[in-house]
Every structure is written in C-alpha cells, then in structure tokens.
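Journal club side-thread
Mid-discussion, someone asked how the predicted structure for our own chain would compare to the paper's figures. Pasting it here so we can look after the session.
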Amino acid sequence: MADLSDALSVIFNRKSVRSFKDSDKAIPKETLDVIIKAAFAAPSAVNLQPWHFIVIDKRDILDALGDGLPYAKMLYDASAAIIVCGDENESKLYWEVDCSAATQNILLSVEALGLGAVWTAVYPQKERVSFVQKQLHLPNNITPLNVIPIGYPANTNRPKDKYKPQKVHINKW
C-alpha cells in the first residue's frame, strides 16, 4: 500500500505550470505511459471509461495547437501534451465528469513525476472544440475536453493554498 503522506504531498503540491524549459528534451515514452495509466485509473460512471487520450510529442503539432488555442500558448515550450477526449457514444450523460477525473489523475501523476502541466480548456467552447477536432482528425463522436501541455518546469512554482473553510458545511448548509 502506498504511503498516504506521499499521496497527500502530491495533492497539496500540485500546481498549474505554464512556463517550460528544454522543449527539445523529450519526455520518455515510459513516463508518458505511466501518466496515461494513471488516467485510466480514474473512476467513471458505471465504469464506462468514455475517455480517449491523444499523446502529442511532435513539435509541429504542439505548435499548431498553440497557434489555434488562445489560452494554450505554453504549448510552444512544452515537450508533450495530452488531449483528453470523451466519446459521447459511450456516455452521453457523464463523459465530461469522467474525463475530468481522468484529467486530475494526469495532473497528479505529472506532479508526482517531477514534471509540470496545466489544464487548458477546450470544451465547451465550440470554436476550440472544432479546431482540435479538425487538427487531430477526430471522429464526430469524440469531443476534446482539454489540452494538457506537459514539460520541464522553467520556474520553481509554488502551490497555492486554496482551502476556504467558509465553503465547508457539516451536516447541513
């Protein structure tokens, strides 16, 4: 069994990394495989697992995505990216929630591996969804939820303390 303190350390130290260095330094395939396996470990409604993951490690594709996505310019300096997609044929009701859980597992595994990443939204912005679908030749039933640039952090980013006790309610509102 994993040490609980290690898991909590990863959770509390996770941060959004938007600035990368060494973009020409590849992230090893084995590392990307671990990240994807962590995504598959996420829970999903009725265990339907309506997700698909597109791993991008080619510079021209990363740059093209950066050109077309207004809040993902850090792709220019990222070493890789993972696009989390949902298959609406597999789960019309819960694909967004299920893919969000997988996304969180990706972000936590990236933190645990000493890399940096950030969730950049694609869905529900129709123009972003259409752009990614066309760029990556996605079938009509596959909707990109987000693009996660991954790389070697350029700075020492510190996690934010996001705890707000006023938003915690015990037994009733």
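Post-session note: The two ends are 36 Å apart (CA to CA).
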